[in-house]
Amino acid sequence: MELIQIVALVASLVSLTFAAFLAYKVVGKDEGNDQIRFIGKAIQDGAMAFLSREYRLLAIFVAIMAVILAVFVDLDVTGRIDKQSTSSIPVGTAIAYLVGAFGSGLAGFIGMSIAVRANTRTTVQAMQGLNPALRVAFNSGAVMGMSVVGLALIGVTLMLIVFSNDASIVAGFGFGASSIALFARVGGGIFTKAADVGADLVGKIEQGIPEDDPRNPATVADNVGDNVGDVAGMGADLFESYVGSIIATVALAAVGASFLGAKTLELQLFPLLVASIGIIASIIGTFLVRTGEGADMGRLLWSLRTGIFSAGALVLIGTGGLIVLLGLDFNLFWVVLIGLVAGQLIGTASEYYTSYEYSPTKKLAEQSETGPATIMIGGLGLGMISTVIPGLVIIVAMWLSYEFAELYGIALAAVGMLSTLGITLATDAYGPVADNAGGIAEQAGLDPEVRERTDALDSLGNTTAATGKGFAIGSAVLTALALMAAYAQAVGLQTLDVMNVKVMMGLIIGAIMPFLFAALTMQAVGRAAYAMVQEVRRQFREIEGLLEGTADADYARAVDISTQGAMKEMVMPGLIAVVVPIVVGIILGPGALGGLLVGSIATGFLFAIMMANAGGAWDNAKKYIEAGNLGGKGSDQHSAAVVGDTVGDPFKDTSGPALNILLKLMSIVALVFGPLFIA
């Protein structure tokens, strides 16, 4: 075992230990009175019921896929793979796949388990002040962040040790992680948006009752959805991004070795070192997140940025020092720097276009004065223009990374971007906890001051969620590009001839995939939301005294409807992401599959940014009006903004975020199955 691998294992254990410590701190806080605990228990039970059903369904898919990998890739029953592996385990890829799927599922489970316990505690701490509430919510997010990086790093390191750094086998680990991530994102996204749309359309618009009003039957389902979609789904998503970037770097190490004059093994293990430094830096960064009472949005945002920027600086210092100590090429430092800077620039661009602190979202809110149509048009235009800066950032990052370290550099830039994931994910995952806390405060009838504090944290969470989605999409592009390069190396594909008709066909199929995938997920949300709307209307119609507050809503029925809708609708989008690349590779060959990957990355990246930012802008335009601007709550402007937010919900929380997983999943499917397509 190499020293760097030992360091990576130790850093992983430190990360998981720190996550356990934070979880202990969060759970030790006061849960509140009986009413708060009752609401919290309903959310917790609903979330766990959904996750249990989802994982049982996914277990069937994982088992079938493991058998396919064992038969066609490991045992090579078709005799098409040139076996060069030194592994003594005959079904190594299948085993790695199972471990990756388990790790991804476990990361999501841990994150959601702490989130559904932190929401009530955040509510109680909000009674005392803004900073105590922020600390509990942020610590719960940090549990998620540190668990994800710890599980991912220990998993990929053990796979490299067991399978002697054979990237072709370890790629199975990434495939397993991506499989679970896609279904978790899509299923959780469908659940949460069906509940959210149902609650908004019937509660806010038709009945004119406040958000999170306990009379609304969809309220608890909406709170559950925040956890299964934005916590469990996001955790699984970034787990596989983290893993995929490391695997791609390992696979391309031979290319980098020839360019940088280093040993292949040194470059294979270098991303483990960067990730280890990132874990320690993220832990230190979490202690720097603080705020004062009465802090505005700007101060709250900078309290989180202080932690993130400090972690990034520590990564650079640590990486630079170790490069000098180990005698490696200093070009590696510049590549890591490029990745970190690119991630921050993409996140900042998303923040600019989605936060109501800036003019784009304020101007979008003003368009509500002429009705829903204009705010819809404005939001779509804003989403489209918001793709320019992230697109240019990725272009420059690719170019500079390639100049410093060729294809290896692109992969390492993705590792650098994700090196501070422990704290970056914490700033994203805390948002749903704050949102839940506000809902619990409303339902429990607490002092309005409590809701004001949770709303401040929730508004910040909307901004950090938008930046987090931009960050996730940006890292996905670099990771997908690196995996595509690894695929090209695996199948001996030196160039892509765009004048070749099969390559051109692959390009067009790849360009179609993000639109097909987004269409399927949007329509799925529409169907599930329709069922929820009908159920909420039924309860208001049939339960006497519900609207007057003298009777209780049937929350469990609403949760069950969202669960059924998500389970039914998540299957098809997940299957096409796996099946289409394999079919294209079999029928049209490796060149066409390379074209598919290029087409999907180009369109999927920009489409995902557009959907995420448009949805975030619509959401915050509504919150800007609810803060007392342009007529405030109950005005015609507010009603128009609610319509925009309703459309934007599946944009930013279902289809948009899932697209980045689609790109990585198709790339890693190509890498794993690629040798089968060589004539």
Please provide a written account of the structure.
This protein has 679 residues and is mainly α. It has one domain. It is 83% helix and 0% strand.
How are the elements arranged and paired?
Layout: H1 3-27, H2 34-74, H3 92-126, H4 130-162, H5 167-206, H6 219-251, H7 253-260, H8 264-286, H9 297-326, H10 331-354, H11 359-366, H12 372-385, H13 388-418, H14 421-443, H15 448-491, H16 501-542, H17 555-569, H18 571-588, H19 590-626, H20 636-673
Helix pairs in contact: 1-4, 1-8, 2-3, 2-6, 2-17, 3-4, 3-5, 3-6, 3-14, 4-5, 4-6, 4-8, 4-14, 5-6, 5-16, 5-17, 5-18, 5-20, 6-8, 6-13, 6-14, 6-15, 6-17, 6-20, 7-8, 7-13, 8-9, 8-13, 8-14, 9-10, 10-13, 10-15, 11-12, 11-19, 12-19, 12-20, 13-15, 14-15, 15-19, 15-20, ...
| First-last Cα distance | 37 Å
For the secondary structure, the number of strands is 0
Helix content: over 70%
Instruction: Write the element-wise H/E pattern from the N-terminal end onward.
Output: HHHHHHHHHHHHHHHHHHHH
How many alpha or pi helices? 20
The domain tally reads 1
Q: Please identify the structural class as seen in this structure.
A: mainly alpha
Taking all residues together, what is the mean pLDDT?
87
Q: Low-confidence spans: pLDDT under 50, at least 5 residues?
A: none
- Whole-angstrom Rg: 24 Å
Largest sheet: none
Question: Outline, from the CA principal axes?
Answer: globular
